[in-house]
C-alpha cells in the first residue's frame, strides 16, 4: 500500500473525545522512548508529523493522524516511565487503558518493544493483559539498526520463545528501524490486509 496523504487531526487527553468517525484505527503503544512516534513518521514518510524526542515521555496525549482519508494511525503515550511521578503515570495508564479497551474503532494495537533488549517484565505483563482482554495486537521490534541483523534475530527468537510459554499461537510480528526504513512495507501491507478483510 502506498500512503498518499497523512495529516494530524487532533490530540486528546480523553479516549471518549477521540474523533467521532468509524474509520479503522491502528495504534502504537510501548514503553516511553521505544520509538512509537518515530515509526509513525517513518511509515508516513513525514519526519515531523508526530513529535519525537531523545528524552522519554514526549508523547502525553492520544494523537490521531488520518491516512489516505481512510484510516487512522494513533500515537499513544508510552507506559512505564517512572520519572514522570506516580500521579502522572497513573493518569497516563488510565488513558491508555481506556483507549485500548473502549475504543471500538481500534482495529490492531501495535506493541513496540526494543529489539536490543531481553523480554521486559512490563511488556510481558502488558501483552498478557491484552490477551486477557481479547485485544487484537501485533508486536514490532524497534531500532533494529542499532545492532547486527543476527543479534536482532537472536533477540526476537528469545522473545518469541518466552511468549510461546503463555500463548498457543504467536502474534504477528515485525522488525523495524525508523532510521533505515526497515519494516515499512511489511507493516503497511499488514494494515492493508486488515482494512480489506
Ligand atoms: P514517548 O513519546 O516518550 O513515549 O517515546 P516514543 O516511543 O514515541 O519514542 P520516539 O519516537 O520519540 O523516539 C525516542 C528516541 O529514539 C528518539 O531519539 C528517536 O530518534 C530514537 N529512535 C526511534 N526509533 C529509532 C530507530 O529505529 N533507530 C534509531 N537508531 N533510533 C530510533
Ligand atoms: Mg512518542
TrEMBL record:
Cited Pfam families: MMR_HSR1 (PF01926)
Listed transmembrane segments: none
Keywords: Cell cycle, Cell division, GTP-binding, Magnesium, Metal-binding, Nucleotide-binding, Septation
UniProt KW Protein transport keyword: no
Ranges for domain EngB-type G: 22-197
Gene3D superfamilies cross-referenced by the UniProt entry: P-loop containing nucleotide triphosphate hydrolases (3.40.50.300)
Database matches in InterPro entries: G_ENGB_dom, GTP-bd, GTP-bd_ribosome_bio_YsxC, P-loop_NTPase
Gene Ontology BP annotations: division septum assembly
Required cofactor(s): Mg(2+)
Molecular functions (GO terms): GTP binding; metal ion binding
Record has Cell cycle as a keyword: yes
Family: Belongs to the TRAFAC class TrmE-Era-EngA-EngB-Septin-like GTPase superfamily. EngB GTPase family.
Purpose of the protein: Necessary for normal cell division and for the maintenance of normal septation.
Name of the protein this chain belongs to: Probable GTP-binding protein EngB
Lineage of the species this protein comes from: Bacteria, Pseudomonadati, Bacteroidota, Bacteroidia, Bacteroidales
Gene: ysxC
Amino acid at each position: 500500500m502506498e500512503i498518499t496523504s497523512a495529516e494530524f487531526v487532533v490530540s486528546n487527553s480523553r479516549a471518549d473525545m477521540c474523533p467521532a468517525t468509524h474509520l479503522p484505527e491502528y495504534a502504537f503503544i510501548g514503553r516511553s522512548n521505544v520509538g512509537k512516534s518515530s515509526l509513525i513518521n517513518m511509515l508516513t514518510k513525514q519526519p515531523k508529523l508526530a513529535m519525537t524526542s531523545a528524552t522519554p515521555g514526549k508523547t502525553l496525549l492520544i494523537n490521531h493522524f488520518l491516512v489516505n482519508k481512510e484510516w487512522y494511525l494513533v500515537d499513544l503515550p508510552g507506559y512505564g516511565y517512572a520519572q514522570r511521578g506516580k500521579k502522572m503515570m497513573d493518569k497516563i495508564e488510565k488513558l491508555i487503558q481506556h483507549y485500548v479497551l473502549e475504543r471500538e474503532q481500534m482495529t490492531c494495537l501495535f506493541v513496540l518493544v526494543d529489539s536490543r533488549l531481553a523480554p521486559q517484565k512490563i511488556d510481558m505483563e502488558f501483552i498478557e493483559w491484552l490477551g486477557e482482554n481479547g485485544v487484537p495486537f501485533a508486536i514490532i521490534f524497534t531500532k533494529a539498526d542499532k545492532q547486527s541483523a543476527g543479534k536482532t534475530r537472536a533477540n526476537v527468537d528469545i522473545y518469541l520463545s518466552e511468549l510461546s510459554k503463555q500463548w498457543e499461537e504467536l502474534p504477528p510480528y515485525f522488525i523495524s528501524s525508523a532510521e533505515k526504513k526497515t519494516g515499512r512495507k511489511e507493516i503497511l501491507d499488514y494494515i492493508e490486509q486488515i482494512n480489506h478483510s
